[in-house]
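Thread: Newbie trying to understand structure tokens

Hi all, I'm a second-year student working on a class project, and my supervisor (Dr. K.) asked me to get a predicted structure for one chain before our next meeting. I've only ever worked with sequences, so writing a 3D structure as a token string is new to me. If someone could post the tokens and maybe explain what I'm looking at, I'd be very grateful. Here's the chain:
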Amino acid sequence: MKILVTGNRGYIGNKLYNQLINDGHKVDGIDLKDGLDILECLPSRPYDFIFHMAALPRVEYSVNNPYYTLKQNVLSTSKILEFAFKNGCKRVIFSSSSSIYGNGKGPSRILSKGRRGREQCFC
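---
Reply by user tm_fold:
Sure, no problem. This is what the structure looks like when written as tokens:
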């Protein structure tokens, strides 16, 4: 399969990237650590799957640099979804970070019993 991994130099993204290669997939990676702007450097070829792992994960950084963080976290996700749709990608897998919880303890319960509770949790 042809797979794109954004954030392939991050901790989890790198492990995923290497495992997919070891499993015999054709894998490309894009990472902010390489100085690449996801909004500007998406490849012109289609992919079967996209693992969107790229993000600026630090709350303090996002407060001090709100525009850049919005661009890289929100707008790039929108661009990835648009790219996937236009190129017939079968699935986009999005991974968030613990930073979405801010300085709190996070949710007390991630999954609730029953289908409706799970849908509300992940929307």
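A couple of things are worth pointing out once you decode it. Residues 117-123 have pLDDT under 50 and may be disordered. The longest helix spans residues 66-86. Feel free to ask follow-ups in this thread.
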